[in-house]
Automatic annotation (TrEMBL):
Organism: Xylophilus rhododendri
Pfam families named in the record: DUF1854
Protein name: DUF1854 domain-containing protein
Domain (DUF1854): residue spans on this chain: 27-154
């Protein structure tokens, strides 16, 4: 049941607009407080000056149309590729070069140490690559058996 009174829409340029109770429209950007641990909780709507305009404790408090607008906006900005399969590793000790398949295509990464694998809720992992980018494994139990077997050697 939506409890937060909030009107969201898009302007002619596709930007997200928030209309407050006084009917004042403002371009806002949604920002997750906990993008990996709680992606549906703690959403801040930030104005063009960088100041928070509205805090949304949980997306379920919004109507379906507003939830979808915020999810679409957040999804377009998320830059963490999701690992779908571990194809190969150069060695089972670190440093190790990994060949993986992600939701954005195949790539290679460098795992410098076991500390580069950070556990997340719901069996998730954040993989920090030695080359800079981070990768996400949403649920390591959902990986195929060979990928889980490789991953277990590092955990």
């Amino acid at each position: 049941m939506p409890t937060t009174h909030l009107k969201l829409s898009r302007d002619s340029f596709g930007r997200l607009l928030m209309t407050d109770l006084r009917a004042v429209e403002e371009v806002v950007t949604p920002v997750r407080a906990f993008p990996l641990a709680a992606p549906s909780e703690g959403i801040s709507l930030v104005g063009s000056d960088g100041h928070e305009r509205r805090w949304i404790p949980h997306l379920d408090e919004l109507d379906e149309a507003s939830r979808e607008l915020i999810r679409t906006e957040l999804d377009s900005r998320d830059m963490i590729p999701e690992i779908r399969r571990i194809v190969a590793v150069s060695t089972f000790s670190t440093p190790s070069h990994w060949t993986v398949e992600t939701d954005r295509g195949p790539t290679n990464l460098l795992l410098r140490s076991e500390d580069d694998l950070r556990r997340l809720p719901d069996n998730g992992l954040l993989v920090a690559s030695g080359q800079g980018p981070h990768f996400l494994i949403k649920d390591r139990n959902a990986l195929d058996k060979p990928s889980r077997k490789i991953l277990d050697r590092f955990l």
